[in-house]
Amino acid sequence: MNILVTLNSGYIKPLCVMLRSLISSNPQTDFDIYVMNKSLTKEDYDYVYEKVNPKNYVIHDIKIDDDMLSEAPITDRYPFEMYYRIFAAKFLPDNIDKILYLDPDLVVIKPLQDLYNLDLGDKFIAAASHVGKSLQKINEIRLQMDIKGPYINSGVMLMNLKVLREEQNYEEVFDYIKKNKLILFLPDQDIISAIYSDRITIIDHYIYNMTERLLLAPKSIAKNINLKWVTDNSAVIHYCGRNKPWKENYKGFLDVFYKQYSEGID
After folding, report:
1. pLDDT tens profile 74-100
2. What is the Cα–Cα distance from 31 to 26, expressed in whole angstroms?
3. Sign of CA pseudo-dihedral 266, 48, 241, 234
4. How far from chain centre, in Å, is Cα 20?
5. Fewer CB within 10 Å: N-end or C-end of the chain?
6. For the whole model, what pTM was predicted?
């Protein structure tokens, strides 16, 4: 299984937890882990191999030059690395037809084969959406979306690299960033949702992108989706936003899954 991550050195420890959970939950699977970055060092990778027994995975270091993103807005929360996944087809080996992107701030608690084997057809990506109809409409207006479609969370994405290589227009991405950089709140997923909305397949957020906010939402409560349901059914727990389980002020219930895989990672 091909896995893509993008990060800087600040997320090495969460990456170790994510990889531990991925490997533990998919014990019969071999992984090629492609790490798109600009500055990770040998020491960073040595730390990963020390904390995550490399019995069924190989890491591939993919260095990226940020010059191509000189117009892109960044903040401490949203560095250049978040944009790299948009250009995965450009920088990854040509013999890879698809790859599963995973944020380092998540854990995997069930096998991912069903997601990985999803037939994407001519779609660019498969991802989950966390927004309701009202917020969807706001995003359509804010992002000047020409085609009505889903606003996705980019933390988990199955990417159709073969079709992206054939059809993705990089200049369209750069032009959109230049014209709209002042209105990009969550820049990478804003861009993906705005430009590629009609090329997205939606996956179940309860299964593949469960979050603390989603767990506590009225619809979830009405459907009796609680911590036990998550344990029995969800495959990916995503700690998106500022509420991170490695921080002392974490609020919620889903940190139990992070703690399960974080022992010895300090």
Report:
1. 555 556 677 889 999 999 999 999 999
2. 10
3. negative
4. 16
5. C
6. 0.92
